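Sequence in, structure out. Go.
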Amino acid sequence: MTDLVVRRLLIDLETPVRRHWCGGDAFRSAFFNALSMSFPVGEQFFIDSVRNGLKALPADRQAAFRDEAQGFIGQEATHRRIHALFNAQVEKHGLVNEWEPRAKERLKLMDGLDPRHGLAITAANEHFTALFAEWMLSHTAWMDDTEPRLKTMWLWHSAEESEHKCTAFDLYKALDGSEAWRLKWMRRVTVIFLTDTLRQTVSNLRRDGTLWTLSTWKSGAGFLFGQRGMIRSNIKPWRDYFRADFHPNQQHSALSENWLRENTAAYRVVGQPG
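Output:
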């Protein structure tokens, strides 16, 4: 079990955010804006899935997971709130969140299904966010020349995603979730997640007026597929999920703990295990 601490991020999200807030780069700003637009509805689904998974355990086994589940829920609820505030700022530039309504319609199909499906979907998404978080924490230069408060927001989120990447996975296993369905949902989530990210990024760039600018896509190609690129760097850790003996802790590093220890002034602890 993992001890998950709930933290309140001490940054100002009332002050307007620049249009190209991520180092003045149109593509990176549009890409991270797209990811953020998915978080409020996504985090709520993850919260509901873990809560329902905990309830589905036999009463005598719930105590072993309760503290971690509550920590997970607290962290994700905080992420949901912070990114809703951030989204409200970037949408002032004329961006429209087209991802959220699609996701809400898709998630209606989950009503009444075995809670293990929600956990498998959550575990797959948490694998994506955890490997991207690890990449962010090891490639912080991509956030150079970004406002300190926004750089802090993304690295704080990354650190906490690394912390709680095992919760949904372990609950799924505790409920004897099917290995075949774990892998099937990862394949589905991969297609949906990457497609929705691209669609929202393109929409953001179109509304920003930079979709057909050559420099936009040169930047995007380097950011995603260059030597230090996000996609290129994460192909192997993504594939690891399909191993029969995979567990999220196998991709553990000290980057999350180091960032949280070195940046205590950026947050206040509001909840601890037990």
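Check: The CA atoms of residues 160 and 256 lie 7 Å apart. The mean pLDDT is 96.
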